[in-house]
Amino acid sequence: MRPIEGVTVVVDLDEMVITGYRDRVVVPMPKAGGTDYRTMKPNTKEKLSGLRKGFIVEGHMIRWDNWAFHLAFDARAGLVISHAAVSEHGTSPHRRSVMYRGFISELFVPYMDTAEEWYYRTFFDEGEYGLGLFAFPLVPTKDCPAKAEFFDGYYAGQSGRPVKVERVFCVFERYAGDVSWRHTETGIPNRVFTEVRPEVTLVVRMVSTLGNYDYIIDWEFMHSGSIKVKVGLTGILEVKATPYTHVDQTTGDDIHGTLLAENTIGMYHDHFITYHLDLDVDGPENSFVVSKMETVRAARASLRKSYWTVVRETVKTELDARVLLGRAGPADLVVVNPNKRTAVGNQVGYRLIPEGGTGTSLLSNDDYPQIRAAYLKNEVWVTTYNASEKWVGGLYTYQSRGDDNLAVWSLRNKSIENTDIVLWYTVGFHHIPYQEDFPVMPTLSGGFELRPANFFESNPLLKMGLPCVGFVYLPNCTKET
Question: Into which family does the record put it (predicted)?
């Protein structure tokens, strides 16, 4: 971590002699302070809780080591996370805001058969049915591990009376043998140093069963400051009866699916899960920055021919913020607070990292389901905050004609610089069924990560205690673990 720049030495390894030496430029050497992770021993008073119930519930607020957030139930959205804030110093009360509110805004599932009995099967599962209304009690030790804590949910029934959904959420600490960070240092002669920290996270889970499909919805909080959001698809495929009993009989006929068994077709379809992410990164005034990686030809003085560099663009308007990931090329998508900077001057931010499920709609723009879901031609949108714009497919989805959705709202093309903005992200799956999906489908998952981008001064894990996990002997663990 203390490089001496500008010095080049050429050594003949056969003769073991220096054949060339050049001291080209003098650059100040970096300071030594804060560079040796071996000296950054965690405060034992801030030990992570391992697999015990290490979180605190105060009403609807949940506090877990360096995180605090509000957990709520909504009949339409189901699981809602809000007022999420994180600190750099373990259980320090001085937490900084990350997200004002996050939830699934719509779940669109169009099927690809145009027959009279099938063409209308283009379900807006959230707006037409409700993720909360179709959330069912979680099964202890099966849907959630043994030490999970369960929470009930309530909504207003048709009579106006409250309806209780038992065990609609579970919250638990997870340790799956993952590593939060590690390093083996071999640069010191005759010595090897290895530091490893296990990854313990906090998971909030809900499951909604909308007809044939079950959706496992997770929000996972990490000590690194990241939030991983995942949705798992399982349940039973929507199938169609057919006279065919073998694939060879279907030659020349588009059956709109896969022959899974005799007389049974699993239909082609999509799953588009769109998230409303009202990020407040260290405050509500935020901007959206696209950091593109571009290839540059090297100067003639170098033996290299090319390199890549980063070109950062602060997106100015809502229409310019539409991002189709495949077309955008390599890029980091970052929500920054332009009014807050680190000690060395970087804008604090959080970046969006897709983790599977990046499909966009393949329907033609004049197809009626596509008109109603016009926002699905791009995975990423950014708009200014508007309290009435919560449901990406429109407030009254059953009556939607495509005139009240995210694609229409963005046409106002408002400025999104240094203001309260909302990030919309769609996790998309094009589902070609396979025989392994029949008669019940193993879980298929996708999601994204909201990861700190210069939000902290350095790796916050170095200031966290060593997690005590299971019955493995770890020197920092107490006998109570």
Answer: Belongs to the copper/topaquinone oxidase family.
Average pLDDT of adjacent 10-residue blocks, the chain of 481 residues: 87 96 89 73 50 80 95 97 90 86 98 94 96 97 94 94 96 92 89 90 97 97 96 95 93 91 95 98 97 93 92 95 82 96 97 92 96 95 96 93 94 97 97 96 97 94 64 47 39
Instruction: State how far the Cα of 266 lies from the Cα of 436, in Å rounded to an integer.
Output: 11
Q: pTM (2 decimals)? A: 0.90
Return the active site residues.
125, 213
In this structure, how many other beta carbons lie within 10 angstroms of the beta carbon of residue 191? 8
Contact 111, 267 (CB under 8 A): yes
Contact 275, 313 (CB under 8 A): no
Q: What is the DSSP string of 335-397?
A: EEEEEEE-TTSPEEEEEEEEES-B----S-TTSHHHHHTGGGG-SEEEEE--TT---TT-SSG
Residue 50 φ/ψ region, left for φ over 0, alpha for ψ in the -120 to 50 degree band, beta for the rest: left
Instruction: Identify the three-state secondary structure at position 82.
Output: strand
Dist. CA 471–CA 477, nearest whole Å: 10
Asked if residues 135 and 207 have their Cβ atoms less than 8 Å apart, the reply is yes
220 exposure class (CB count in 10 Å sphere: 0-12, 13-18, 19+): middle
For residue 175, the 8-state DSSP code is: -
Report the C-alpha gap between 420 and 382 in whole angstroms: 10
- Of 287, 283, 318, whose CA–CA distance to 410 is shortest? 318
In Å, what is the CA distance from 300 to each residue of 296, 304, 305, 306, 464? Answer: 12, 8, 8, 10, 48
Cα 98 from Cα 83, distance rounded (Å)? 8
Query: What pLDDT does 315 receive?
Result: 96
Round to whole Å and give the CA distance between 405 and 383: 12
